[in-house]
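Section: Multi-chain targets

For targets with more than one molecule, the full set of components is provided together so that the structure can be written out for the assembly as a whole rather than chain by chain. Components appear in the order listed by the source. The example entry contains two components.
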Amino acid sequence: MSHGTRNTDRTIAVEGLARVEGEGSLRAVVRDGVVEEVELEIFEPPRFFEALLRGRDYLEPPDITARVCGICPVAYQMSSCAAIEDACGVTVTSEIAALRHLLYCGEWIQSHALHVYLLHAPDFLGCEDAVELAERDRPAVERGLALKRIGNLIMETVGGRAVHPVNVRVGGFYRAPSREQIAALAGPVRVARDLALATVEWVAGFDFPDVEGEYLFVALHDPVRYAIDSGRVRSSAGVDTDAAGFRAAIVEEQVARTTALQSRLFGRDAYLTGPLARYALNRDQLGPLASGAAHAAGLGDVCHNPFRSIVVRSVELVEACDQALGVIEMYEPPSPASVDVPPRAGTGTGATEAPRGVLLHSYEIGVDGLITSAQIVPPTSQNQLSIEADLRRVVQSGLDLPDDELARRCEQAVRNHDPCISCAAHFLDVEVVRA
Amino acid sequence: MISPACSVVVAGIGSEYRRDDGAGVAVARALAASSSAICDVGPLGEPLDLLGRWDRATLAIVVDAVRSADAPGTVRVIELDAATPDERAPVRRVARGTSSTHGIGLAGVLRLARAVGSAPGRVIVVGVTGASFGAGVGLSPAVERAVPAAAALVLELVEGAG
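Its structure, encoded as tokens over all components, is:
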């Protein structure tokens, strides 16, 4: 890495983005004190899973796509189920939908706890990593790990096991948990909700760089609650469409510097999905506890500071616990545990809110019930252009910083969005250069 | 991962969709099939999944694919202790070269577990040298052949601990 000052040409290279799923690289070139280019390279293997799905039975995608991401398998299962059921013209019962919702809350809790405590918080506290954070503030890390465990417990109870749940099938579940099994979750989830409230209070006290972005937000909108597992797609520019309409509006493009595809809305606009987008579009639907926590944490109607996404994510932890408790208290075991989904030739599309943003699946099924084409659009590829825009602002506003500090802030800016690059690629490396 | 009575935890780590990276998962599955006393809780995609699952075990045996100069299918046993070379390296560096760790590799997860007082008493890694880690399913022949031997070795370690 070179050293330079504000008025020199310099290239800042970060050769390894830590605490981000996968590996890629980041390169920023500064000339005459102006950021000339910022490139987040993501090394994406061919869309292996899309290819793998072609020719497979229409009931297989939930099991296969769950293996795309170790952190958010439920998101992949739920989006694939939604897409296939859409293709086959089937709607599940409200009891099945509720159980899916509970499973998804479990994934939000474990994934958000992981990101907030182990990947993101160390940045704000001057710690090299979560281990150093644990050495300095053990109760905080224990709180995070306890939250993660309770999220896993929900996934284990509903999904059959915590890692890559096996109880999910197209049409519902293989077996419905008993009333007693679900009721036993209430105590731990109440504990989790208290831990989540403490999390909001904790992160609200961090120091945040004064950087704001102008984002085009995209998120699902559910008429009855803060959307997690269902809803229409809305944007802050007034788009309101279903999953198929959203799919038609996304243009994925290949650019030379990265093997990952990048998404633009209507082939034109960079956009952002994830916590900031959900909060901007759905904050009025937060429950009283999450809403109160957001207010106390100083979040306004919209949060444009990507570094504050850790606060929004923590508010969502409260909301996910609250929504989970709502399902637990009203639980009726679905009987039967799944509805029949006979194959039907056609195309189906489904979208849900993965912890990191909208996850879209689309499948074309042939008359023989085999998949003829599959499309998976993960949050990371949708957010990539907005992350690059963030990086441009971060580098421009931090030109007075020494290279190593600026590089660290760039890494932090990428982590703001918690990109799951193994969803869109594997292995991430970062580079920043002052020419 | 399998967890017999939780005093000894055996964890197979890896992805079956990255060829030989699935070696650890294959060994865990073979073990689970060999005894009804062993419960398979699913393939661990990353070391972070060990947190909460190996807490305070007497012994944790982690089976994973490794890259090494050995011939593919070679099985080696490594005990992680305070002298483990990466022990004090920052987690972000430990993470380099792992395939899907969300930034924290096995040594980092062990350090984290020790920092919060939940680490197992001993951690033994059973490494199976892989040949191919590209996208795809199926182990290469040498690694496939090594799976029963690695499983037998794990059982010996478990019995030795008892």
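The first strand of chain B starts at residue 8 and ends at 13.
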